[in-house]
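Recap quiz, item 2
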Amino acid sequence: MEKRVVFHNRFLPYLLVAPQIAITVIFFFWPASQAVVQSVLREDAFGTSSYFVGMENFAALFEDDYYLNSFKITALFSTLVTTLGLGISLVLAVTADRLIRGATIYKTLLIWPYAVAPAVAGALWGFVFLPGPGVFAWLLAQMGVDWNFHLNGGQAMFVVVVAATWKQISYNFLFFLAGLQAIPKSLIEAAAIDGAKPFRRFWTIILPMLSPTLFFLIVVNVVYAFFETFGVIHSLTRGGPAKSTEILVYKVWYDGFEAQDLGGSAAQSVILMAIVIGLTVIQFRYIERKVHY
Amino acid sequence: MAKVTLKGVKKNYGPVKAIHGVDMEIKDGEFIVIVGPSGCGKSTLLRMIAGLEAITDGTIQIGDRVVNNIEPAERDIAMVFQNYALYPHMSVYENMSYGLRIRGRSKADIETRVQRAAEILQLQPYLQRKPRELSGGQRQRVAMGRAIVREPSVFLFDEPLSNLDAKLRVQMRLEIKRLHQQLGVTSVYVTHDQVEAMTLADRLVVMNQGRADQIGSPQDVYNHPATTYVGGFIGSPAMNFLTCRIDTGQAKLTDDVILPLPAGWSVPAGEYSLGIRPENLRIARAGETAHLQLDVDVAEELGADTLLHGKIAGEEMVVRVPSHAGFHDHSRPGLVIDIERLHLFDRESGLRVATPG
Amino acid sequence: MIERRPIADAVGHLIMLAAIFIVAFPIYLAVIAASHTIQDVSQTPMPLLPGAELLTNTARALFDGPQLVGVSGATPAIVLLMNSFIMAISIAVGKIIISLLSAFAIVYFRFPLRNIFFWMIFITLMLPVEVRIIPTYKIVADLGLLDTYTGLILPLIASATATFLFRQFFMTVPDELLEAARIDGAGPMRFFWDVLVPLSRTSIAAMFVIQFIYGWNQYLWPLLIASDYKYQTIVLAIGRLIRAPDAFYEWPVIMGMAVLALLPPVAVVVLMQRWFVKGLVETEK
């Protein structure tokens, strides 16, 4: 895409992009390159000088059980958040789409959790599940569950997944609903005339037509679970108990700030960078494909 | 008001030559229509006069000033765009006055000019409306109003009527004509519609693949087309072209069809393209010798006239006859050609060899 | 739909209502908790119907802040809310301004480094704060911007998303408008202010909603930059308040604060729903 008609000016365009580029260079490119540099350095015991250690920081990471564990936890966490979030939102979107009355009101009443900060979502759900006064905690205790997510790692994972998924449902719901509403009604009517019953129509017509949206949302949800849930973890569990909810993003912050392991944290940053780049490439591949659709 | 002079104007887009060198002199107050099919370069030529496209070679003069390197705003022109290009967020009044405000005209001056233009175009009731609240014809008028308030030396129109429906187009065409008579401003008007071109123009410029094939009055272009291209483009239905051999003062189409030549033609023997307008043939009267017989494939009823489509010696032929002649598909009427209205073109170059005197 | 199926419709409405109820439940509880005394809330389970203390607790949250074990000097929510507003509005406005300008440059000019700039802006998508935490913190520290509004705001106002949205919108503006403006005598900046910005109103509104929420909900960044309570935001305070499992908490006041923390962005989304949905769906195209 290019404009046919443009202005001609030597200096003005540089002036116009200058603020954006300055911030980008100072606060994005420079720190990112520093992360890469630090990932191959180690500070001496006094923190006064550093020396080159090659891939040692990375090697150390992959021998570190806590780091490998953090990988597994992140994988579990993001899988749960993505599948639960997408599953629930798809059911809701399909339900809302076929209801003629009330669809708009339902939409309004479902989209607002998008605006709630992850940390606040964590606080709200932490209170609902709070051992003692928490209503769900009480319900679970009534059912005979020995409930205390501050002490039980599995229960802690459950609560962070609930809080993270809750926040993301509105986003998924909006995109599914938009995708469903973009499917031409005539197509579904044609299938009905061909004799396809609603359930069959869903599997053979609606779901395939929705697959680009679904694919896009999978990527977005994985990115969300990986990088945007720091607040949920920090406010709910602080990565605990016993590091059972320590996802990668939490660990990179903890190791860098609380444990002051600069080299290790930088190496983790570099690995995370590789993950974001991978996910972004996948996402844009998809967009390109959609263009040729 | 000013004359506009183009000398050897060329436009290249990289290696692609869009305009091959156009010369023309537009007189002060003249209404010039540049006509041709899409891609012939007519819009490019107009946009070069406006200053929206750079000129690769040659000069453009408005008045006595060479404007090659002068900004559009400084050329003392105004332009009406095909899609009107009205600023959607501004009211009609703001749209019309925007250029004047940029030039720092006084409030009172702007007010008089806008009111005057609005009066001419009957836009007074709509001055506070946004473009989207107007009909197509009204938007078209606003676009013209924006041009008028500038009181420019030259109006440029880039297919201004092509977004309107057929009825409105005819009506607006008349309005533009009236407006020109009223204001007398030099106007350059681009269109692909030959009826628009014929009805509006003082002089026509027929463009063909980046060249001006012919510049002349509508009558002149119609009666004396300079090339087969012009002959085919101007006039509806299009001129018929038949291959013929000229020898000893006769045009031989086939062994059976031999036509006399108009008086006063002296043409060397050889192969030519013979141009016959559909309206210059008629049905042979009883007892009259027909020049040729047409195998009619399809008869198209237009109401007043009927178009007979058929073949002569393997070449397509269209004839316009009065409807009451009662012909229909698969008739085989005998036709008489108005010999004095024949056109003759070179077969290779398409250039005119002889036309009606 | 094609079949008339009243029972399926009824089931559908039930599903939606249940979903809305469950989605709203934690907030309902937060409001209920904020309306009781600390003793009432400490029951197992807490009461499920509203009490009479909502105003008292909200006032306490706003003007005193919750009493915390081991944290000296509670910050009143009014200060935190003010910081959140400053941060969210500055980030949203800053992003919109610099993105409008750079999108304008990239779409409406041809200049040698144009593509490089475009890709630089694009790559920022791949560099969220989370992957460059410590070096970014160091830069801000070196520039002396820790515990300042500038430090909280400036590094976050680069925006690939907003730049791409505006670029996409500018591409749909007909070329003839620019040509008409040129004939009217408008230069680039005049065209930008008089034509492009007014035409972009909807996109700007959409971006404002998205970026206001983005700014308001920042957590990791203020956690790094604002160690001084004077510069903390309400979202950060909420996350930091709930710390140890067994400590004594003023839950009514904390939950009142949580509601205060989510009210402004939720209000923006609900009131500006049209632009919000448009912004969300269009930026992801």
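Chain B has a mean pLDDT of 90.
Residues 166-183 of chain B form the longest helix (18 residues).
End of item.
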